[in-house]
Structure of UDP-glucose 6-dehydrogenase:
Amino acid sequence: MKINKICCIGAGYVGGPTMAVIAKKNPNIKVTIVDINEARIAAWNDTDVSKLPIYEPGLAEIVGETRGKNLFFSTEIDKAIDESEMIFISVNTPTKTYGKGKGMAADLKYVELCARNIAKVAKTDKIVVEKSTLPVRTAQAIKSILSNTGSGVNFDILSNPEFLAEGTAVQDLLNPDRVLIGGDSEEAIDGLANIYGSWVPQDRILRTNVWSSELSKLTANAFLAQRVSSINAISELCEHTEADVNEVAKAIGMDSRIGPKFLQASIGFGGSCFQKDILNLVYIARSYGLHEVADYWEQVIILNDHQKRRFSDHLIKTLYNTVSGKKIALLGWAFKKDTNDTRESAAIYVADHLLNEQAEITVYDPKVSEEKVQSDLNYLNTRSPEENKALLQSTDSPYEALDDAHAVAIMTEWDEFKSYDWEKIYKQMKKPAFIFDGRNILDKSEMNKIGFEYYSIGS
Ligand code: NAD
Ligand code: UGA
């Protein structure tokens, strides 16, 4: 099946970059990304591409190249659905905050709204592609909504989960390990495989049934997060035994069966998906009565929460058991480098814990605005927005953040932090000057030589 027009509902971290790359690699296909969020669409349409709502290396260039030619951003959702042969659903699927499954299950209300909108508008046959991460068997619900329109329109449902990581989204999309397509209509699968086939080798385009595809996405994230929790669990043991977690990670990673990637001990994983997707997996397993399976995966989250908490506990303990009234500088707020995304960032929880102990915090992140930092904290509802604002400030200058601080805590592994003038910083800080390196990016012996009391994860 030849596709000429695509619509993607959801102009977020997945919809934006994925569709930009599809448009770049398929100049003959018109790609329209739609969203209910007018401000977000306006930002995607900003003539200054440095103001796009999402920061991803390489993205602004691709959007600059394709926008207005075959890539369009719009709030006219019905029009885009009506004119397209293929519709991607790439809306958010957060953890439920109410009702049955609260705190565990994925909230599918946005996905359902999309399905209902497609059902209402479609006058011709459509291929509907699940791009959002969804619980196994969600396609059944989408199918049921779409097949009860009475309009005679035929809908094929495909599952095509996205595996990009933020910060490397463009590279991941241009050179994916695999593209996964689950479905039962060969014709529809071919239609989507041809779109990817314009740049992805056919042997990397994997075809499965819909349910395997849906479950593979949750499983991939669970395995990745499990590796981080595994190495973080070992990091705590290292701290008690004089083993060094970086050395352990290197030693085990050289075993080709284990492999070297995703073994970086840290302050704990963040991001919008690992926690949400594992909670969802746990919820699904419990709902089938598989309690051992559920408990096994839940432990990945429990360990991650422990890692965040023990980082701030250690900082407080080292600062003579009190941080009250002390200036603490946080370098980084994003959940990883090269993104402006802060969802579930470990920094939010560490800051909240330190604020409970009446620390005075200054934050510097090269890509995260002061408003975002404040709204992340306010979202926790631990204290009033006024109190958060009084206790925590953001600055545009790292040296200002560090001036007169008792301690600096590195929350994100931004490359620029490594090249700072640490001798100058040492002179600016209160003595003893403490560094808590939550990402193990600085060199311990160099920092000790300058005079810092330096603590990293797992050594
Ligand atoms: P996001 O919050 O950045 O974007 C979702 C967008 O959908 C928002 O702009 C929102 O306004 C819009 N939206 C919601 N309901 C809508 C509706 N009814 N009509 C039109 N627009 C609507 O989310 P994201 O990070 O892009 O994630 C989207 C999905 O992709 C999630 O299921 C997520 O689990 C999955 N995923 C995310 C990543 C990632 O790195 N962020 C990677 C792989 C998969
Ligand atoms: C992750 C997966 O890597 C993607 O394949 C998936 O598509 C995506 O989730 C999703 O479904 O949303 P992302 O969360 O963007 O991507 O970023 P990761 O690189 O996986 O990092 C997640 C968190 O783990 C970050 O906080 C990172 O700092 C942390 N991490 C990662 C470590 O602490 N150590 C590591 O070795 C690797």
